[in-house]
Amino acid sequence: MSEESVNNGGAAERQRGIRLTVLAIVAVGIVLVAGFFYAATRARMMTAEELKSQGAYLYENPRTLPNFSLLNDRGETLTPISMEGKWNLIFFGFTYCPDVCPTTLAQLKAFYQELEPEVQADTQIWLTSVDPARDTPEQLHSYLDFFHPAFRGITGDFLEIHRFATSLNIPFTKVPGGGSNYQVEHSANVALVNPNGHSVGFFKAPLEISKLKRAYLSIREYH
Are residues 53 and 34 both part of a single domain? Predict the structure, then answer.
C-alpha cells in the first residue's frame, strides 16, 4: 500500500472522528436545551406560603363534598360525581349582580384564555347561583355564554345550594328588603375542586390573573 493511500485513509478516519464528535456535542446540546425549556415551562412546586402570596389557600387535607342534587345551565342533574374528571373552579354569584360577578367572570375568562389547550380541556369554570329563585338554567346559560361558551352554571334548590356553598367555605346571604330587586351578599372567592371531586382550597379575591394562573398550574402539577 502506498504512503499516499495510508495518508488518505488516516485523513478519512480523522474526518469521521471529527463528525462523530460534532454530532455528539450537538446531541448533548439539544438535550440540554430541551431540558432547560421543559424546566422553564413546567410549573414549579410552590410551598403553602408561596401559594398564599399568589392568593391560593389549600386545605391541609382534601375535603369530600356532601351529597347534593342540583341543575346545570342545560337543565341536567348535577351531583358530586359531575365534578370528577376535571379541575373545577367554582365562583358563587348571580346574574342580577351589578358589579362583582361580571368583573370576576371577566377575570376568569382572561385567565382561562391564557391556559394551554390541554389545560383548558380539563379545567371547568362554574358560576353557582346564590339567587336560584331568579336564575333559571336558561337565564344562567344565556348569561354565561356572554363570557365564554365553555363556562357552566349551577342552580337548583336554595337549601341545596347553601349546603354546597358551606361545604366549600363560600358564605352568602340575601339582603333584607329591596322587593323584587333584592341583592345577595356573597364572597368573591373561587373554590377549587380537584378531579377526584374533593374540595382542596380556594383562590382569595380580588383575583389577579397572573397570580391565579401561576398558583393554579403549580397546584395541578403537585397536588
Answer: no
State yes or no: 97 annotated in a binding site: yes
Burial class (CB in 10 A: 0-12, 13-18, 19+), 218: buried
Q: Is 186 annotated as a binding residue?
A: yes
Q: Are residues 88 and 161 in the same domain?
A: yes
Here the CATH number for the domain that contains residue 59 is: 3.40.30.10
Q: Examine the domain organization and report whether 25 and 129 are in the same domain.
A: no
Backbone angles phi and psi of 95, in degrees to 5: -70, -20
Same domain, 127 and 78: yes
Question: Does the predicted TM-score (pTM) go above 0.85?
Answer: no
What is the secondary structure of 140-163 as a DSSP string? HHHHHHHH-TT-EEEE--HHHHHH
Contacts of 100 (CB under 8 A, 6+ apart): 93, 186, 188
Taking alpha carbons only, the member of 201, 164, 178, 158 closest to residue 56 is 201
Is the previous residue joined to 206 through a cis bond, with omega within 30 degrees of 0? yes
pLDDT in tens, the chain (223 residues): 555 555 555 556 666 666 655 454 544 444 333 333 333 344 567 998 999 999 999 999 999 999 999 999 999 999 999 999 999 999 999 999 999 999 999 999 999 999 999 999 999 999 999 999 999 999 999 999 999 999 999 999 999 999 999 999 999 988 877 677 788 899 999 999 999 999 999 999 999 999 999 999 999 987 6
Residues 18 and 120 in one domain: no
Report the domain count for the chain.
2
Q: How far apart are CA 67 and CA 64, in angstroms?
A: 9
